[in-house]
Predict the structure.
Amino acid sequence: MHRRDGASLVRWLCWLEQNIVDGRLTEITAAEKLTKYRGQDSYFISPSFSSICGYAANSAVGHYQSDPRNAPELHPRGILLVDSGGQYLDGTSDITRTISLGHASPAERAAFTTVLKCHIRMASARFPRGTNGSQLDALARDPLWRQGWDCRHGIGHGVGCFLNVHEGPIRFNQTNQSVLQPGMVISNEPGVYFEGRFGIRIENILMVVNDEPSEFGEFLRFETVSLCPIDLDLVDPAMLEPDELAWLNGYHQMVWESLSPLLNQTEQTWLQWETRMI
């Protein structure tokens, strides 16, 4: 399911890049087009929640919803945050991508790369059996805290399988005491939001799996199951440590290998550039 959902997202991102001209698209028409791409999948039933599509300062508004009466127009500049998902007969998706529509500023790149560091911290975590959601929430926030910033929501929530897109008991937040168990599926969505300016969020879905035990007992880790490129135009490679660069390049290699067979030649060419090594 996540391969097909990712392919729909790539088709939409490729389409968006080709059609982002002043005033032609709005937050609502762009989100509707994404739903149409997902709807081409025979297993698709409906969106898993009402899509959040926030442009420029609207990307910093929590749980933002566009007003059809005056939906902002998109322009080839600034930030677009899109949080969306699908209900399929074989699963539920929830994924957020923050996209530069052109001319990313140094402040936008610094904020995005900081959030990416948080995302990688969670995705690459290795932890002993018995670890709870609040412990890993703190682990992921560290790069934000070092900047004097914070994420104004939990870092993740449980996700059902053709069920609730927000499903307990596990969550990554500062109070959740539920213990992670193999087979649990949970989102990884750190963000930072600067009111009146822009917001950043990067979200993938993780699955808890067994890792190699040690003399200290059993350990667990995560597998990332969402498949969609992370916008490299917003990444400042100088801010990333070698292991973080390795994670990003490895993730993009997985995205390319998993999705390219599902795409046409134009979409493959677009994806190949978006998953390039940095």
Notes: DSSP finds six helices and 14 strands in the chain.
